């Protein structure tokens, strides 16, 4: 039914570490615009990975409470 793959958690953690490194490097280099764009790109990637799980969760809740 609804199962969270452990590899997703590791992928999200790795993405967060990489985005943090890029953000810090760009921020200290004075490229604030690129730092924020990198942050937004990382957020978008993370949402693309997580949204299917959220949709599965809502489908499971609908099935449990029979909300069709």
From TrEMBL:
Asked whether the keyword Membrane is assigned, the reply is yes
Listed InterPro entries:
Spore_III_AC, Spore_III_AC/AD
Residue stretches spanning the membrane: 6-26, 38-58
- Transmembrane recorded as keyword: yes
Organism for this UniProt entry: Moorella mulderi DSM 14980
Q: What is the recorded name of this protein?
A: Stage III sporulation protein AC/AD protein family protein
Q: Which NCBIfam families match?
A: spore_III_AC
Alphabetical UniProt keywords: Membrane, Transmembrane, Transmembrane helix
